[in-house]
């Protein structure tokens, strides 16, 4: 065990930090004051005098954001906090059983393998320009942009910086450079695809060939049906970007290019990266943490028709939203059937039961990666009572720090993405676009622990608990642990289509490329693909 530095902390900072540790220790005991103690600890943890906050900022440093808490306090908590202030539960986590909660599945030495082959040449003179209108939320757009990078390569086109979706449910007005590091994107792809910020002036008003590229297409489609369009137009506009490339059976160099685009080129804009890393640091000051993608926002519940646990008024509001959203095609949904098939996100209450069954103690810090939870605190009571150290970006950052991002859904989602990728454990309550993107990124970075809930099996168990046929405790915990032993992000090849599915349903049933980039972009040292192609990203 490393020796602690003997540093005498400043009086006010020391008193606040000691009080925080004491309150957090109360939270671990399971006493009646658990929630109140932890919430007070959180409040103290984020508080700091204006003078101290001002002095902790670094003027002149690019993208250096102000910190609402004293750096000295954080350093003292990490390095010299008296051992007697650590809670009994925290000491318990030092044992083998406690450590196993955080250990990832064995990575079997898989590492990123994304360098191009010797046959992959730098882009030659392009045939024309490819405009891309992305669609969906942040991670749907990220996947679409990465696919369009590959499509531009297939078509030998110059890619114009994509236009982000401004007409979706969130009405986000962000431009590409607001969300992503534009210069890094262009430069990192220089040997793969020519990327420019804008069309040449003489082509801005020129006729364009607007196309909805066929979903889940391969190289032959783009070479045989899209490439000939260059004979008539200098500009092709892709009206949508989602799922326009097949997951499988593409040339190896194209698959590796998709990975270079998704995991490396699409770095977030510097202000987002800076605040995201700061949120990770603040979250780590509580100890190892779980990032919980709690997909319980209004748009998700309205789209999916999942109303279990909601009031009649709330259910009617969601149905009205679904009815009035023209681009959502399915209107009549049976919520009970949806839930029984595992198509609904777990509710906050169910997530709390799940984490408890996995044997995470109540002192576990949990970061909520989500937008505004539908119904607010009224739906969070059960989860909060089980895990009082419940944090989110609004609690970890000051209002001033969040102000530049708050009105932009994609930028706020990017902050959650960073904290989720860097977490010790990631758990999504629903397998949506963000859950898949984060899970894939964590696989790419070394198969970090990602627990994927078996929602269909879980709701059956939770219904038995609600009906009194099963009690929470050892038996329930053992059943849930057993069914999730092989759902923790261990290396495996990407799953193909579900047997018996046809047409587009066959493609939809496949595991998404970016959710699991193995075998295309991950390999083991010593394998044929690993020669001169290990890239640190």
UniProtKB/TrEMBL annotation:
Residues 74-93, 482-509 are annotated as: Disordered. Keywords: Carbohydrate metabolism, Fucose metabolism, Glycoprotein, Glycosyltransferase, Membrane, Signal-anchor, Transferase, Transmembrane, Transmembrane helix. It is a single-pass type II membrane protein. This is O-fucosyltransferase family protein. One of its GO terms (cellular component) is membrane. Belongs to the glycosyltransferase GT106 family. GO terms for biological process: fucose metabolic process. PANTHER family: O-FUCOSYLTRANSFERASE 7, OS02G0726500 PROTEIN-RELATED. Pathway: Glycan metabolism.
